[in-house]
Amino acid sequence: METLPLVTVALLGAYHGLNPAMGWLFAVGLGMQDRDRRSVLRALPPIAAGHELAIALVATLVVGAGLLADPRPLKLGAAAVLIGFGIFRFAKPRAHPRWTTMRVTRKELAWWSFLMSSAHGAGLMVAPILLGIGGAESAHAHTGHTHDHPDAAMGLADAALAITVHVAAMLAVMGLVALAVYEKLGLTSLRKAWINSDQFWAAAFLVAGTVTLIS
Amino acid sequence: MSRITPDPSFYATAAQAAAAAPEQLAYVATIGVGDNGNSPPDALGVLDLDPGSSSYGRIVNRVEMPNVGDELHHFGWNACSSALCPWMPHPHVERRYLVVPGLRSSRVYVLDTGDDPQNPRIVKTIEPEEIARRTGYSRVHTVHCGPDGIYVNALGNPEGDGPGGIFVLDHDTFQVKGTWERDRGPQELAYDFWWHLGYDRVITSEWGTPKMIEAGANPELLLDNKYGHKLHVFDMKRRRHVQEIELGAEHQMVLELRPAHDPAEAYGFSGVVVSTADLSASVFLWERRTDGGFAARKVISIPAEPADPDLLPEALKQFGAVPPFVTDIALSVDDRSLYVSCWGTGELRRYDVSDPRNPRETGSVRIGGMVNNSPHPAAGPVNGGPQMVELSRDGRRVYLTNSLYRSWDDQFYPDGIRGWLVKLDAGQTARSLWIPTCLSNSPTVSGPTRSACRAATPRPTPTASPTEPDQWRPCLSSPSRCSAPTMG
Fold it and tell me: Is residue B465's pLDDT more than 90?
């Protein structure tokens, strides 16, 4: 597998790890509630697992569709979904399931993370990469590694690798931020530093959809 | 209506809130009073609290409601620090809309304070029919911004019977989303509600159904202990009743609920208006037990004061005593001071509740009262008594208003209540609680109306500026004309 798509999924994972709404803030909140650092650490794996599940769901759909459908209609479909989702995020930036509270089991925490990641479109954003967008181009650049079907979707093994890299990056960043905030920084800085990225994230879907469409 | 950075009036901790800049404005509900059905509408008053302003301490604007007879009550903001709750954060919404319920009319007004905080505009009116159709509730009472919506409660149904309960408004559109409870268990009466977000628990209290309260306090119902005397605990996630806490049938009318602000703590205080055993008033502490259930115990008892029956209103003459009637309580943001309004005897008490099971009285101010008629030190005679209490976030200023509920005002203060809002200063040491005597701090009386309900403070500036703990400023304006008697 090429490096560029792996870097892209890793950066996306880091972005999700950095986003307070995707989990680290919940982990810090649980730690503050219990006044125990172990509660922060305990919360991280279920949150990452839920996130991974959300991405794996989309990946399964994409890889499965890649086996059945031709690349071209698959890309058109993916582009339509991405652009549609981007428009939806512009119109309703705060739409998400309104579920759970502070008392959560690990299973509930994973389910919460799955719901939030899905509503946020975390899995959808990985779809273009799984479809070989970007990866296909770098494959062309390396003349020695010519793929038989450079425009086809990733295989199962590559998709699994991409998801693993994504979630590892997310977990690493989320864990670092959560511990730094819990141990050192506190929540005061968050009141100024938490930039509203709703529009940026919605726009990213429009860009991803457009790139998928024209590539 | 989305911000780029979090709303500066959202605080991640109670300590952050307490350290924020002082309030500059307050909003106060004023109740239209007139004779022979000729009442003016209720209004939302805008009170200037900027000590540097020439109109400091005055009502600088009044926004009249478009209808008569709403009986505005416990209003609240569309969004607050609960927007930071870690499982559903919406830090970029704005705290700018006041959600103002009419306890009598069941109407809810939404006022926008964003463009000009001194000139709120009514941007939406939710009619009682819509609330009844979507929730079955009527007589809208208290508003709290919650993590997943705006929670509102009501005393009963459109026919004036029970059950009362909670419904939810959409955060963004203010649409009535529906009844909150999935299973209310034995809960029938309603008054206040609040929560321990960290423990998934909602606590509710009991007054009476609309029929039991709208014509005034009913002595027969009261002596039969028919008014509310219980607390209820609900599971917030499942919206189910999990526990009923009996305070004792003689503890009639369990009203205000004040949970600890520290989310790791699961205790709070609840005021009881009157005991039919001895006319005393009390404050109960509820706390979470180690098994996850809740228990309550009486931690404050305030006795009735003997009085000449000639000076008492009709309903109380037979008793020869004036009951304290604890109608409101307020807990400071640092969870250390509890203020208790005695609307009957005309007293505001302060307790140190650092040890919540053993409150210590640390101050008392007398103003108004059915029998005492204690004057304001600067403005002279006043009537009514301390009712709604609002504290500044830093705990240094206390604001009081004197009206309870119109029919009850007329019953217990038959001469009619003339509205006032009084500010007290609270020092850090024991017994330092006083009413400043500068004239600019005198009660605010405005025309044929009464002040009622709570003052709420608008967006403070985000810069933290805690004042030095020992540098009291006895009066906030013209120090040369002021003195600062320590009352009580």
Answer: no
CA torsion, points B88, B91, B97, B98, in degrees to nearest 10?
A: 70
Q: From the DSSP assignment, how many helices (H) and strands (E) are in chain B?
A: 5, 30
Could B8 and A196 be called an inter-chain contact, meaning their C-beta atoms sit closer than 8 Å? no
Question: What is the torsional sign of CA A53, A57, A58, A60?
Answer: positive
The complex's ipTM works out to 0.82
CA distance B97 to B111: 5
Q: Is A192 on the interface with B (CB under 8 A)?
A: yes
**Distance between CA B235 and CA B375 in Å, rounded?**
46
Mean pLDDT value across chain B: 86
- Average pLDDT for B263-283: 96
Q: Where are the domains of chain B?
A: 14-481
Enclosing H/E stretch for B412: helix B406-412
Are residues B285 and B258 in contact, defined by beta-carbon separation less than 8 angstroms? no
Its CATH architecture, for the domain B14-481, is 7 Propeller (2.130)
Q: Does A195 contact B197 at a Cβ distance shorter than 8 Å? A: no
Mutation to test the B interface, candidates A28, A92, A191, A197, most B Cβ within 10 Å? A191
- Element of type H or E holding B433: strand B433-434
* Look-up of token digits 């005991």: B275
Question: Rounded to whole angstroms, how far apart are CA atoms B422 and B26?
Answer: 12
Q: So what's the pLDDT on residue B209?
A: 98
What does the pLDDT look like over B361-378, one tens digit per residue?
Answer: 998 999 999 998 998 887
Residue A134 CA, distance from chain mean position: 17
Number of domains comprising chain A = 1
A206: containing domain? 3-214
pLDDT single digits (tens) B148-182 = 899 999 999 999 999 999 999 998 999 999 999 99
Task: Collect all residues with Cβ–Cβ distance below 8 Å to B109 and sequence separation of at least 6.
Answer: B65, B70, B99, B100, B102, B122, B124, B125, B126
Q: What is the mean pLDDT of residues B391-411?
A: 90
